[in-house]
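Long-time lurker. I teach an intro course on protein structure, and each term I like to show students one example going from raw sequence to a predicted 3D structure in token notation. This year I'd like something fresh instead of my usual example. Would anyone be willing to generate the tokens for the chain below so I can use it in lecture? Attribution to the forum is fine with me.
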Amino acid sequence: MSKTEDRQPTVLVVDDKKNMLSLMKKVLRGDARVLTAERGLDALKILEAEPVDVVLCDLR
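-- Reply from a regular --
Happy to contribute to a lecture. Here you go:
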């Protein structure tokens, strides 16, 4: 396999509830590299600094 195929996807989870961030980390652990942010501004900083494949966020 090439390095690209070996690389786990990076998922950014954005939620203001810490328990939801923790749950999503547990659910995705092993299948993806999980980054978390509690605020939109923090998420934007992560997106500027890290290559992210998927962003999961709540609407409220």
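Some talking points for your students: Helices lie at 3-6, 18-28, 40-49. The chain has a mean pLDDT of 92.
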